Amino acid sequence: MKVKEGDKAPDFTLKDHEGKDVKLSEFRGKKVVVYFYPKDFTSGCTKEACDFRDRSGEFKDTVILGVSADPTEMHDDFRHKYNLPFRLLSDPDHSVMDKYGAWGEKNNYGKKYMGIIRSTVLIGKDGKVVKVWPKVRVDGHVDEVLEAAKAA
Fold it and tell me: Is position 45 annotated as part of the catalytic site?
């Protein structure tokens, strides 16, 4: 990951599932979980989103934001189909993912290509990075994020 624990989280503005601008700095004074994922409606991404949905009520004073390169309309469909209570943001040019280290070289069966690296960042109320999870495995991940958010 490009951002490290203790760094000031790079501010960004992205469109949400309704096409509205969402600026990270709007959430100063709250903890923010930004999770980067490859694609709406795929099995791993759906499981991760539903895990965050199922535990969302336990994230006190914490905003959850999902970010992928998918268009806002697709995010809206994904959010409605799975009843997701948090905003999904579109980063089609990967600029925010690049700042956070969630865009980079991947390797699949020996083939190298650029893609979205499933990762999560917890940002504290002061706007600094509390915890970074690079190369996330979906199973059990939300439990780890919740534990860190409660401790922050």
Answer: yes
Q: The domain spanning residue 87 has which CATH number? A: 3.40.30.10
Domain membership of residue 2 (yes or no) is no
Residue 1 pLDDT exceeds 60: no
The answer as to whether 4 is a domain residue is no
> pLDDT of 64-90, one tens digit each?
999 999 999 999 999 999 999 999 999
Query: 6 lies in a domain?
Result: no
* Residue 90: C-alpha distances to residues 47, 64, 74, 93 (Å): 19, 14, 9, 9
Q: Which of 1, 32, 33, 45 is catalytic?
A: 45
Three-class secondary structure of residue 60 per DSSP: coil
**Domain assignment present for 126:** yes
pTM as predicted: 0.95
